[in-house]
Amino acid sequence: MWKGTSSGRVKSPDPASPLPTTQHAIVQDSMGKPRLVTEAGVPALLPGTALVKTEAVALNPSDHKMGAYFPAPGAVVGMDFAGIVIAIHPTNPANPRNIAVGDRVCGIVHGSNPGRKEDGAFADYVRARPELLLRVPAGMSLEHAATLCTGLSTNLLALWEPEGLALAATPDTPAATPFPVLVYGASTATGTLAVQLLRLSGLEPIATCSPRNFDMVRGFGAAQCFDYTRVGVADEIKKATGGRLRHAYDCITDADSVAICYGALSRAGGRYVCLEKCPEELRTRRAVKHEFILGYDVFGEEVPLSGGYERPGDKSKYARAVEWFGVFQRLLDEGRLRTHPVQVLNGTGLDGVLKGLEMLKTGSVSGKKLVVRV
After folding, report:
1. What's the number of CA atoms in the CB half-sphere (13 Å) around residue 254?
2. 181 has which bridge partners?
3. Which of 295, 300, 314, 342 sits most deeply, having the most CB atoms within 10 A of its CB?
4. b/e per residue 199-231 (b: at least 16 CB within 10 A)
């Protein structure tokens, strides 16, 4: 077994050993449902890519939703992973952090991708772009590291892209005068990362979540926490922020969350960003600029979905994502970013993923990120 070192690098595999050709993977069946297969093909190592031996994967709500709404039979499921780099294509122009064979890394891929079905994370081996990998600090477990990159990618789009909240303040250029930003669903893995990034940017994160998660969310940096189930909570938030709230980030996106976010924003309006397509009838205020973002946009490629989730591809978003991953690497190395609490599922390798997807579907997860050791 490979052993870790203080540099976060492990012993490199024998370069004379051939790369594997088959693997275990969670793929969509003919109905879009996830199933474990034992002889899936290992993705070919293409120019500009690395091959990672998967050690841990983290589960996201999209992992069960994609097959239900956008079935792509044969597509490998999953976005978040961590593991050991075992190969890098020699033609690799974009590797700004000098990711090398033997590095412990975490990353994001476009799982359940109808356009490139081998791209998912729930597999023994993952093909990824080195520029969208983070080197895992020596003191961080791969189980915790696996939770990071989808949340970070989503947040860079939601907080700083023009189609998101378009915040000027960043961790590198914090706001001179703090102002409130609402994070609805702050106890989710994406939410706790958002709270940290907002605090690092000199802003005032205002959180909604279950009261049982208040202490956790405050620990990540929330200035105030509100119970999203309370009648009149939007007015409570508006009063607590002195009517100054101009930015709302909805990590949940249902009828209640939209109504609360809209109600909490100032009389003058503001910006609202969500992670799901929102029905027009819920957009009740013309003064609120309403956008939803899709995490897949960080790849800069066409997203071949439908129903408003399709994207033409935007290389400029990819270029900015690469820059942001450099910022995230530095924050990790400096110990300024913490991972969400994890629940490591028992099971034999990828079998645990199927159990975890059922847990996400039934809504039985709160305040934890589900992780499976591969």
Report:
1. 4
2. 205
3. 295
4. bbbbbbbbbbbeeebbebbbebbbbbbbebeee
pTM as predicted: 0.94
| CA atoms of 275 and 273, how far apart (whole Å) | 7
Residue 1 has pLDDT above 90, yes or no: no
- The CATH number given to 162-292 is 3.40.50.720
Average pLDDT, the chain: 94
21 vs 69: CA distance, rounded Å: 30
Does 162-292 match 22-147+339-373 at the fold level?
no
Where are the chain's structural domains?
A: 22-147+339-373, 162-292
Which carries the bigger pLDDT value, residue 279 or residue 274?
274
Q: Are 125 and 64 in contact (CB under 8 A)?
A: no
Cβ pair 154, 147 in contact under 8 A: no
Q: Does residue 2 carry a pLDDT above 60?
A: no
CATH topology of domain 22-147+339-373: Quinone Oxidoreductase; Chain A, domain 1 (3.90.180)
Structure tokens at 117: 């079905």
Let me know how long the chain is: 374
